[in-house]
Amino acid sequence: MTLPPSPDWIAVDWGTSNLRVWAMGAEGILAEASSEDGMGRLGRADFEPALIRLIEPWLAAAHVPVPVVACGMVGSRQGWHEAPYRCVPCAPLDPAAMVQVPTTDGRIRVSIAPGLKQMKPADVMRGEETQIAGALALWPGFDGILCLPGTHTKWAHVSAGEVVSFQTFMTGELFALLSEQSVLRHGLQGAGWDDAAFDTGLSDALSRPERIAARLFSLRAEGLIAGLAAPQARARLSGLLIGIELAAARPYWLGQPVALIGSEGLSRSYARALAAQGAEARILPGTACTLAGLASLFRQHEMTR
Predict the structure, then answer these.
(1) Secondary-structure class of domain 1-126 per CATH
(2) pLDDT digits over 220-273, tens only?
(3) Is 184 in contact with 216 (CB distance < 8 Å)?
(4) CB burial of residue 305 (10 Å; 0-12, 13-18, 19+)
(5) CATH number, domain 128-305
């Protein structure tokens, strides 16, 4: 019979759609679990029960109260407990800014990492600041650009251990909306991918970003009258959207060292797009960066207690 782990602390990445938790010990990850109890599905009173459902087996053998360090949308205004944004330029994480969450279960002690804000142009992030801190822990001394592809892709300028500025692009959300809810959905169903079609969309968007609306409808028209298959249409749509993002984000990546933090598939697409423009990018796994960031925050926070 396998005994449940007895964690020193618990790491939590709580997004809009999902909740992920890790039991952490001196040797690293002891166990992990996840659920679809993201912030978007929960009322304020539902957060603590949702967390306990996942981690309760770990609490039986643990020394209580167990420190729980969380990042992401759990600290938003609509989350469990608001953790106010910190203003850039600043270090991505600050243990002194951690927000303690009142709990009814005495077996846990929950702290939430604040997100970052930028006043002009107005922008915010939650969760990505922890991945940025993790990237800096894994790659000490890095100065350059960190790109975090996702639903809302972030481009962050990092220098001397601080986030200097950042910009958000809704590229992932636009892809989801266009492929699932627009007229384009009829020609995008199914799986498959085509690198050549991605490259074509990317080139079109980078050379003439002002024509994006027309290029998008051509996907529908070519599907109707020219036999454009779904894998080619999906890849070209992705290329078009990433292309207009790169065109707008050019001041960030042009002539700068770039690292990508995120899922392997999406990061590869961004790396391919950047390579086509002569910019090489290193890929860092998103989960590894999240855990490295939360671990550094836990160590610093415990030292100040």
Answers:
(1) alpha beta
(2) 999 999 999 999 999 999 999 999 999 999 999 999 999 999 999 999 999 999
(3) yes
(4) exposed
(5) 3.30.420.310
